Amino acid sequence: MPSFAERVRTELLPALEIRSTNPRDPVEVVSVPKPWRLIGAGNYAAVVAHPDERERVVKVYAEGRPGLRDEIEVYRRLGRHPAYSECYDSGETFLILKRLTGVTLYECLRRGIRIPERVIRDIDEALEYARGKGLNPHDVHGKNVMMIDGRGVVVDVSDFLKDEYCSMWDDLKKSYYMLYKPILYRFPIPIPHALLNLLRKGYRLFRKRGSC
């Protein structure tokens, strides 16, 4: 039986079509071969899963998008930590990662799911752990952090080798304690995707910090 990495090379990659027109917007996934399933898409890559592999996912970088080698190095430095995934294998355009199954904080807002303060503290502790490994947490926002069984985890570490300061997580924390905890945590309501997307774009224009 071929290895999972070989199945990625022979079954997934030849039929997977990903486009990236703007590095500040998520990649566009045009086609995914069956039975592979799209899990999510970021600014550089898409994440897909196979039904026979419940513990692993494949992150495939779009053509021309940088960062794969940097992400491998980040996972090497992080080692094993409960708030992060792990890199099991890699190829020229893909990583095979430990699967994290939960709900992103963005989806919590969209679906009206309560976000306990424990989740925020977990992510804070995970980012401090990364700093202790010589990394610089970057691009940490609501779509890149997740809640699993009431605990916080960091989903995307691809930009942790960047040097510049990124305020995204600090700004999200301020919003959590100033607005979310006193209001939306007590009275959770679903927030439409269109409104969340408008807030995201407005935030990026306000900050004008490149990827932050």
Question: Can you characterise this structure?
Answer:
The protein has 212 residues and is an alpha+beta fold. The protein folds into two domains: 15-98, Phosphorylase Kinase, domain 1 (2-Layer Sandwich), CATH 3.30.200; 103-203, Transferase(Phosphotransferase), domain 1, CATH 1.10.510. The chain has helices at residues 4-12, 68-78, 105-111, 117-132, 168-184, 193-207, and strands spanning 17-19, 28-31, 37-41, 45-49, 56-61, 87-90, 94-98, 103-104, 145-148, 151-154. The strands form three sheets. The protein has a five-stranded antiparallel sheet with strand order 3-4-5-7-6, covered by helices on one side. The protein has a three-stranded antiparallel sheet with strand order 8-9-10. A hairpin with a 3-residue loop joins strand 6 (87-90) and strand 7. The model has no long low-confidence stretch (mean pLDDT 92).
**CATH fold annotation of the largest domain:** Transferase(Phosphotransferase), domain 1
Please identify the structural class as seen in this structure. alpha+beta
Rounded mean pLDDT score:
92
Through-space gap between termini:
44 Å
- The count of strands amounts to 10
Largest sheet features: 5 strands, antiparallel
Backbone shape:
globular
Cross-sheet strand order for the largest sheet: 3-4-5-7-6
Summarize the amount of helix as a percent range. Answer: 25-40%
Counted by DSSP, the helix tally is 6
What is the CATH architecture annotation of the largest domain? Orthogonal Bundle
Question: What number of structural domains do the residues give?
Answer: 2
Low-confidence stretches: none
List SSEs in N-to-C order: HEEEEEHEEEHHEEHH
